Amino acid sequence: MLAAADLAVSAADDKRDRHQDDVRRRREEQLAYAPRTLVETQAGRLIGNRLALIGAIWYLLEWVVIFGFASTMRPDVTKTSELIAYYSSNARNLIIAAALFILIEPGRIAFLAGLRSALRQTERVIGLADLALGLMVMSVVIEICRYALDGAAGRMAAAGGDASGVLALVYAGDALELLIPPAVALSMFVASLAQWRSRQFPAWLWVPGLLLAAAGIVGSTIAAANVENNSQAGVLGAWILGLWIWMLATGVILFRRA
User: Fold this and answer.
1) Alpha-carbon distance 164 to 10, whole Å?
2) In this structure, how many other beta carbons lie within 10 angstroms of the beta carbon of residue 101?
3) What is the per-residue pLDDT across 70-88, written as a single tens digit (0 to 9) for each?
4) Rounded CA separation 256/95 (Å)
5) What Å distances lie between residue 210 and 58, 108, 109, 192, 242, CA to CA?
6) Residues with Cβ < 8 Å from 46, sequence gap 6 or more?
7) What torsion, rounded to 10 degrees, do the Cα atoms 75, 62, 243, 55 define?
8) Rounded CA gap, 225 and 10, in Å?
9) Which of 5, 75, 192, 214 is most solvent-facing, going by the fewest CB within 10 Å?
């Protein structure tokens, strides 16, 4: 009887030990697997934010500056006397506009930073988002330099500086202006490509984005090659309207998912 009792107690202890080992092993497996599950469920998920929409609206405020301080039509660079008179009489407005553009143009950077932040969990497209942001930063730096040259030309003309110096600043500013649209269009194209690859944005957004950006790249290149033909450059620059709509639409989508 005692031997049978000892065997029963030993069997019960073994069963309890095996149960505890099974519970411990399952708990360790759960703890080890849980972080991977969290990462896997978050990977590829679009993370909304408000920065993209704020950046788009922030950037569009440039029209307030344009109409307020830079709406006067500039004479053709071939009309030297009229050009000098224009810069001399508008020197104050040009300086104010340059200062305000420094504050407003970074809105484009904020927009791309918001889009990049939204795609940071999507490994397949984070490189594209980084490239789009870098291109937009480059375009903003070039544009700020362009307006700074305009302000410098205005100050030189108002101070009675040499006309050839004023013309040099004007031509330098015009040259920089030709570099801005290709950089912006390329940034838009890469960002739209990232939207497509992420599979988190609707086709009605990234398809027009790709097409408009491609038109912008080609159009801005043709416009630069035919800089003397202002009417043609205006038609080819119509893609910029699509850029504004695309930025606002992207910002709204990310805002709603925030």
Assistant:
1) 105
2) 23
3) 767 888 878 888 999 999 9
4) 38
5) 23, 18, 19, 6, 11
6) 118, 119, 121, 122, 198, 200, 201, 254, 257
7) 160
8) 93
9) 5
Which token pair is 133? 């942001």
CA distances for 77 relative to 34, 111, 254, angstroms: 67, 35, 44
- pLDDT tens digit sequence for 166-205: 999 999 999 999 899 999 999 999 999 999 999 889 999 9
Encoding tokens for residue 84? 């000098």
Whole-Å CA distances, 39 to 34, 35, 43, 154, 245: 9, 6, 6, 56, 34
| Token digits of residue 151 | 């302000």
Is the pTM higher than 0.90? The answer reads no
Tokens linked to 210: 């790709």
Task: Extract the tokens encoding 24.
Answer: 């411990």
Closest CA to 249 of 217, 204, 211: 204
Nearest-angstrom CA–CA distance, 208 and 201: 12
Q: Do residues 149 and 169 lie in contact, with contact meaning Cβ atoms separated by under 8 Å?
A: yes
pLDDT (mean) for 21-42: 49
CB 163 within 8 A of CB 84: yes
Q: At what angle do helices 163-198 and 106-118 cross, to 10 degrees?
A: 20
Which structure tokens are listed for 195?
């939207």
